[in-house]
Amino acid sequence: xxxxxxxxxxxxxNNCGIEVKLSDDGRRIEKVRxxxxxxxxxxxxxxxxxxxxxxxxGPARVTHPLRRTxxxxxxxxxxxxxxxxxxxxxxxxxxxxxxxxxxxxxxxGQGNHLPGAYGVSTxxxxxxxxxxxxxxxxxxxxxxxxxxxxxxxxxxxxxDNCEVAVFIGKNPWHSHGVxxxxxxxxxIAKDPERTLVxxxxxxxxxxxxxxxxxxxxxxxxxxxxxxxxxxILEENIAHDDWIAEHVSGFDSVRPLFDxxxxxxxxxxxxxxxxxxxxxxxxxxxxxxxxxYEDLGVQxxxxxxxxxxxxxxxxxxxxxxxxAGSQFVINPLRPLVNSNPSLARKSPVxxxxxxxxxxPCNVIAEEILSGHPDRYRAMxxxxxxPAHSLADSGKFIEAMRKLDFSVVIDVAMTETARHxxxxxxxxxxxxxxxxxxxxxxxxxxxxxxxxPIMAPPADADVLTEAEIHARIIEELGEMPEEVEGLRKTLxxxxxxxxxxAFNVAQANNPAVRRLAPVVLYRxxxxxxxxxxxxxxxxxGVAHFVAQREPGALQRAGLEGEGSTLGDALFNRIIDSPRGxxxxxxxxxxSWERVRTADGRINAxxxxxxxxxxxxxxxxxxxxxxxxxxVLSAGERRxxxxxxxxxxxxxxxKDRDGALxxxxxxxxxxSLNDGDVAKLSTVSGHTEVVVExxxxxxxxxxxxxxxxxxxxxxxxGKLSRVGxxxxxxxxxxxxxxxxxxxxxxxxxxxxxxA
Length: 752
Ligand code: SF4
Known about the structure:
The chain is an alpha/beta fold. Among the domains are: 5-56, N-terminal domain of TfIIb (Single Sheet); 60-139 and 338-425, Rossmann fold; 155-327, Dimethylsulfoxide Reductase, domain 2; 619-751, Beta Barrel (Barwin-like endoglucanases), CATH 2.40.40. The protein contains 28 helices and 26 strands. The longest helix is centred in the first third of the chain and has 19 residues, at 79-97. The two termini are 50 Å apart. Bound molecules: iron/sulfur cluster. The site of iron/sulfur cluster has 11 residues, from loops.
């Protein structure tokens, strides 16, 4: 067996550093262990990483470019043909309807964000301006609230150093998001000086460890958080001096909470008022509180409102800009746009593009509208929207209505099955790859994974960087400066290259617009082949060096200006494992508050009336026809979006059971392992039942990532588990951000 290779787990945003051993033929990942030298994960890994070979050698790998035939099947074509025809079909849409009708979806999952840079170049070369990805069904409401209040993406807290840790709609035990999550949770739970708080309708694994488990009714987070703030204000324990020093507009927000009827809000939420008052005192009296909201509220009713009230809770507890509280990171590249403007709208539904992303839930309806401004072509890259977006059937119908679609991916996904062309790529272990999930503070980390194996000998796959460079060349849009830039680099070195690149950008807007592919074709051609797809990071490194030189220098990178930028880029491509690229002081968060007056803005005008509306109480979404609340997409021990297509990866819960509480099961005469019929307004399916004390009456859950269709011979597909989005409706979405209510689906359950 080979030596250990440093790489990373790509199953969640933590991207823990791992080391792997390959089989003698170099084709299989046979052993996996945590990488003790990785500065963030420090050797930690969870059970999900142990069998990543079932991703690398998954069942649905696409190994050659494929073109759809008239009978709906696919035929192999060579790369020259594929690139020529894909470019021609995209150009035809541009020429007939305008480049803005070419939509781009995806660009990366939990472990691969480099494709996005190159894919957006192709879209830009065509004149495309509308795009979206998974963030627009989870994080855009939160990001917009953060941008409105802080002028920055302020998301999570300093759980290593907090006195109190608060998780809202989040179970880090399984969904992570916190480095070394289980160790960190245990450390907080065991320390008598520290307190762990969980807001969750379920008795999650994190809730089991918690000092305070606020077990609210599903979808009532807005009422509980409003009541929490109201108690802190009513009992005069808010951090008033801190608010006076750092916050603008709080006086106009405060009366909204003075009017909250705490007892009534607790009753509506199913929460014990005494417990909530004890929690309010603990939070207000703590030296530091770290907070984290996640999909349990962000894919639920009132998601944008909850993000807002949650952040107001930070203010009354003084939870920002100090050790153990909330912070603003120094990102290598911001994952989310922090412009709170609502000026840009989607072309048909007229929905605001928060973070410049079209809400996922309106994409299909815009295509199907018949409106002249609808999207006509789609480039879908390393994403599986036909499985992951609400109402899968509607998305598939929309795909088939397009004039053209191309999927760029590793596997024959549920989305690829409906594309006109499929362009196959190297896997995440066969090419240089990275994510921009660099959310750490005060130390922040980056990891460019080097390829550790070659694609199969009989495969004809390319990296996304190469695919997009070829499409842009075929379109005739590659800036002619590329050749000169490459020669400058070869003959005069990196400094002269940097100057020439800046001049080229100034003289030709296309060089700036298509910078990732220009860098790939010029700088990338001079890099070692295994890291060439990382060429786009050169521009990113120089941008960070200009923006935050001190943070880089504190991390040990030397030089100023472009020398510092090159030092960072060299470190990126030379380090096969993660490294610390930024070291901050806690006060730096305040310098990164980019509001007009440099203070936190408490008053988010668009959401004020929604706080007032809470006084009317929760509106029931269940009915006699659909009496249960289904939480679709629960993170469990063996769930990982759709990246694992082989159901054998799951060591337990292979079918992805429907969890329900014993009382509900008894009422329906269902036993553990029984099959039940699950229906929603969008569809119905059969599910295996798991009776679980974790659920409360009326609340049931299904895991994410199940129900994938794999070929099983003779043109047939086989499926294990339920595809959750065959049960969700795209119209069930947040009024503001358009994010779906996957965690709040009215459902009916009957014995099958
Ligand atoms: S799934 Fe587990 S091992 Fe993989 S990155 Fe996340 S926490 Fe780390």
